[in-house]
Amino acid sequence: MRKLLASALALVMIAALCGYGFWTQQRPEGHYLSDLRIELALNHGVPGEHGNLLGVEPLLYPGDYQNLQRLHRKLAAYLEQARAQGLVNPRTVVVLPEHIGTWLWARGEKSELYQVTQSREAQQWLELSNPLRYGLAVLGADGDDWRADAHLRMKAEQMAADYQQLFGGLAKEFGVTLVAGSIVLPEPYVKQGVLHTGRGPLFNSSVVFAGDGSLLGQPQRQQYPDSEMRRYVHDGRQHPLQVVQTPAGRLGILVGSDSWYPENHQQLTEQAVQLIANPAFLSGKGSWQAPWRGNRHQDASAGLALQRGEVSEQAAWQRLTEVAGTDISSMSVFMRGQFWEQGSDGQGFARQSGALLAAPPSPSARLLNVWL
Length: 372
Hints:
The protein has nine helices and 20 strands. The protein is α/β, with parallel strands linked by helices. β18 and β19 form a beta hairpin. α2 (68-84) packs parallel to α7 (156-174) and α5 crosses α6 (146-153).
């Protein structure tokens, strides 16, 4: 009798495990409606032979990341509207916001992950749906926040492939140079034209795609991760800032708060930079007018011209991103939208010939254009 009960219990456990394994593989997709409108908030200068900097501030939500087709449809619709207004040509440099690639960790998950209202619930669905991958990622996790590290590490290879397919494809489709915001990956590098991931710590990096969809240079790692990310993202100061040649001029990238530090601007100036792209992200609704948070965990922040809380986020970003060289044009763009309870804020702006170019605030998706 005991053997019979033990056998029955074993069969029940095997059936439960098989059922759970089958459940984790199911990824049904429902219908999803997305707003594809975007407004032209800033259009400075006149068209010429030197090209333009085109910032895109998309309005994104978790459902946009359920599959690549949805995300491509929205971003392509934005760029198509820009092209219809004459803002896209072979010398256009498109700048997307920070972390637009990081959210690719949510691609291909169960529909419940996109429907919950709290990020902790979304993380639980991610872990329950990927038990083996998550468990292995936890073993290799690094940093103070091992859970956040594991969430990104477990899907890193897929994220890198999706990132290159999506943004390289958009660059080729529209024939533009595209600064693909940023993505958090472990030890990213480019080899033989392909973006790869390593086994080391996580870095917040930006990649540039040429008009034929190919990669330009190596991933530009963020030098000074901000206070919210330093628990699991490492600084990239062992990999100096680089400048790549584009049809519009020599381009450098300052990821997020890297644009605050004069030494970063000096590095790019010494490499004869002409254009600076600044993909940015500011968490929290209404934070653009709130006191500036600064970056108190970075020793270098003590030498900044402003101190934490002294001015608003808007004033700090606009003042600290000022470049000494008047012949350098720059574009700062912010992510907008809502990811579960986590809102975002920030209004993109540009600089040209030393002048600040900003548009009236707006909650919608925005295009910012500066003719060079």
